[in-house]
Amino acid sequence: MTTNPAFSGVVCPSITITADDGTIDYELWGRHLDHLIDAGIDGVLVFGSIGEFYAFDLEIKKRAVDFVVRHVNGRMKVFAGVGDTDVDRVLDFARSAQESGVDAIVVVSPYYFGPSDGAAKRFFGTIADAVDLPVILYNFPARTGSDLDPALVADLAREHANIVGMKDTVDTISHTRKVIRAVHEVNPDFAVFSGFDEYYLVNRVSGGVGVISGLTNVEPETFARLRDAYDAGDFAEATAAAERISHLMALYDQADLFISAIKGAVRAKGLEISTLIREPAVQLTDAQYDRIRELLR
């Protein structure tokens, strides 16, 4: 029942913790990372969607990735989200992340004008060929305007040996299952993660390796418990953890943008972080924070 690809399990797409003035708060971020490690999380993704990758200057992101790699110091995997609409900036960030020592880069499809399959193959292939790092594709069609379909993913895995995984943020397991089946004909160890927290069990049943999902910021222990119970065949314990995660999914709906809700929930759990998200944005209100606290109880 266990899986043995290079990457698997529960990966936290970390919030980017800042002070109220928007500057990165490295002290509190370090404490957050330590909590993830102590809880048993397998890896952290820096500057995924929930990390507001789209809103930070490239040089700030480079320094932040370097900090995370040094702070984690091999205690869990570190992935760097290097997505951008400009391939030159993606390549610049990817090379910097490689120098910092990340375990893999995560590359989202270029957004606004969703690329055709041919353009997507050229985009991802150019990045894969430019680094000596594992590359994890990031499919989020609701935000990018294009979909990495099963045949395209299989083609990319076939043509580029270092494209070794994918985060599939599509709110239907049938899409993820079809990707898994298609890509495993090319590479049986290709690691397909679901991007939705509550899909852990069905992802694993379908041949996937786990989740990269935002609630891991809030209750990483619950996700580690779910993973361990599934691997041990303890389905009563796995079901109990999955029920808790299902309850927590309501957190995503408690703010104008889900990132605010996750930051609010991390604060409510005891880490006194700012809930600021980058402008343009509607910030978390006191009433929303009170609802988040009630949900967590």
TrEMBL record:
It comes from the Bacteria. Keywords: Lyase, Schiff base. One of its GO terms (molecular function) is lyase activity. The active site is at Y138, K167. Pyruvate binds at I212. The keyword Lyase applies. Pfam families: DHDPS. InterPro entries: Aldolase_TIM, DapA-like, Schiff_base-form_aldolases_AS. The keyword Iron-sulfur does not apply. One of its GO terms (cellular component) is cytosol. Belongs to the DapA family. PANTHER family: 2-DEHYDRO-3-DEOXY-D-GLUCONATE ALDOLASE YAGE-RELATED (PTHR12128:SF28), DIHYDRODIPICOLINATE SYNTHASE (PTHR12128). This is Dihydrodipicolinate synthase. It comes from Bifidobacterium pseudolongum subsp. globosum.
